[in-house]
Amino acid sequence: MDYFKKILRFAIPYRKYGFLNIFFNILYALFSALSFAALIPMLDVLFDQTKKVSVMPVYTGMGQAKDYLQDYINYQVTQFAGDDQMKGLVLVIGLVLLLFLLKNIFNYMAMYFITFLRNGVLRDLRNAMYDKITNLPISYFTEKRKGDVIARITSDVLEIQHSFLSILELMIREPLTILFTIAIMFFISVKLTLFVFIFIPVAGFIISRVGKSLKKKSARVQKEQGEFLSITEETLTGLRIIKAFTSESRFSKHFQRSTDRFFKFSNSLLNRQNLASPLGEFLGIVVIGVLLWYGGRMVLIDKILDPSSFIAYMGLAYNILTPAKAISKASYGVKKGNAAAERVLEILETPNPIVDAENPIEKTSFDKNINFNAISFKYEDQWILTDFNFELYKGKTVALVGQSGSGKSTLANLLTRFYDVNEGTLLIDDINVKKISKRSLRNLIGMVTQDSILFNDTVAWNIGLGKEGASREEIMEAAKVANAHEFISELPEGYDTNIGDGGNKLSGGQKQRLAIARAVLKDPAILILDEATSALDTESERLVQLALENLMKNRTSLVIAHRLSTIQNADHILVLQKGKIVEEGNHAALMEKKGTYKKLVAMQTIG
């Protein structure tokens, strides 16, 4: 229940629907019990047991409440029907029908209002999950499988929604139905009702034993669902490689192993869950059977209970079975939902290590320099940068070169605060980046990466990400600077052409020029180019390089270079090795040193 207390805060905005649901559930429970009690006068008329009462009875206290109520109903039947039994029957049948009608109207109203609460909680939980996912640092998702995260925001949240409804019924509707029913059963016969109470705890204990392991079984099912969703997501992402290496059967076996486990876990969970209903019903019928024996003895031998009251009493006793089964089913649902809530709250309650300072600085301009001051950084236990020092001045272009794993991309990630430094300080205009709001910091920076990340939408929408509310003219101007306008104009619907998942309807060079256009539209003060041309053919590289030169004009640029031919005009080049600067200077100076940089250039020239 601890997890559901945390989930309950999502219901606060919808509490009026919750109160209305409770109100109509109370009425439903009351009329559910009364509708069966109303069978007594109907049966009295039917079996000619109705006592003729011609004088309005007088209420003398709680001790005589049952006799007063029976006399009052008999008086009304006598007044309405006289000696005509059919008229009396029509009256009591009308009463029964009215009570059942009201009961079902109240049932519908209770379900009507709970719908808004259920779906509202579902929506807000998913929104909160999505916002949390987009706010968590990138490092969090290097440890999580995307499919598992997708499972949590879809099926786990849906499981919480179903369980949330169950727990409301568990707390309000069904217990009240049982309470009101038992109250009327006491009203009819105290002795018989006390006899019933001997058996109910025994049945409840047996049912509760069945549900004990449900949370553990449900957690296994949900975890395995995340597993095969992850495999599906990875398969769709890497479909070309899977086909190229004819690995379809290997991935199919991998997927089948996961679905086989899901099959086994689901069978175990559902079989245990499905046991609740028949077990509850059988135990209920056992109680009814014992009641028939004991109650029948009270009617036939002891003569202390009249037949019509006993028949109505049996209806009331059976009326307890439905809510008792619902409570049993709901308690199982809560156990399943508890496992789902635990998985959802694990994400929602994950602390974000990269947060704004208490009163962050809103920096709107870049005026002087970027200073990496004795920076050290590690991924888990592996140090990537150690005591790194460098200063990038406004308007200059600095290139970072070196082997994979030397720390080039890490510097870009630290500057954008995708990660925070472990030691040292990173300053922009002598202000620690941790004191600058993340939003204003990232608004100063534009980025073009090796993998031009595009989205399944139109060309205009993808470029427009660079500036919220950008006009079509601004988007087209940015595309022209990025050498993209010409090929966009040739697309079937121009700027309104959908480019497919990840932009896969476009070539590599076209995708990269769209990414550059996006950065052009943003018009950033600081530009990060992360191996922006390394994945392109020669012709595409020439067009993209021209677009990049247009983008870099009068900007401060940090260029992570794979192809060294693209950075020969950089103002300063840093050669990195194992997180440290081993050489620095411009292209000409580094070539003269005949060191690491010249060896790298020579290797690429030979290649």
Report on this model:
This protein has 607 residues and is of the alpha/beta class. It folds into two domains: 2-348, Up-down Bundle (ABC transporter transmembrane region fold); 369-606, Rossmann fold, CATH 3.40.50.300. Helices cover 63% and strands 11% of the residues. The chain has helices spanning 2-7, 15-37, 39-46, 65-81, 85-135, 138-143, 146-188, 190-197, 200-210, 214-237, 239-244, 248-274, 276-300, 307-348, 408-415, 438-443, 459-464, 472-481, 485-489, 508-522, 538-552, 587-593, 596-606; strands at residues 369-379, 382-393, 397-402, 423-428, 431-432, 445-449, 526-530, 556-560, 572-577, 580-585. The strands form two sheets. A six-stranded mixed sheet has the order 6-7-8-3-9-10, sandwiched between helices. Strands 2-1-4-5 form a four-stranded antiparallel sheet, with helices on one face. Helix 10 (214-237) crosses helix 14. The chain is elongated, with a radius of gyration of 37 Å. 34% of the residues are buried. The mean pLDDT is 79.
Write the layout of secondary structure elements.
Blueprint: H1 2-7, H2 15-37, H3 39-46, H4 65-81, H5 85-135, H6 138-143, H7 146-188, H8 190-197, H9 200-210, H10 214-237, H11 239-244, H12 248-274, H13 276-300, H14 307-348, E1 369-379, E2 382-393, E3 397-402, H15 408-415, E4 423-428, E5 431-432, H16 438-443, E6 445-449, H17 459-464, H18 472-481, H19 485-489, H20 508-522, E7 526-530, H21 538-552, E8 556-560, E9 572-577, E10 580-585, H22 587-593, H23 596-606
Parallel strand pairs: 3-8, 3-9, 6-7, 7-8
Antiparallel strand pairs: 1-2, 1-4, 4-5, 9-10
Helix pairs in contact: 2-5, 2-7, 2-14, 3-5, 3-14, 4-5, 5-7, 7-8, 7-10, 7-14, 9-13, 10-12, 10-14, 13-14, 18-20, 20-21
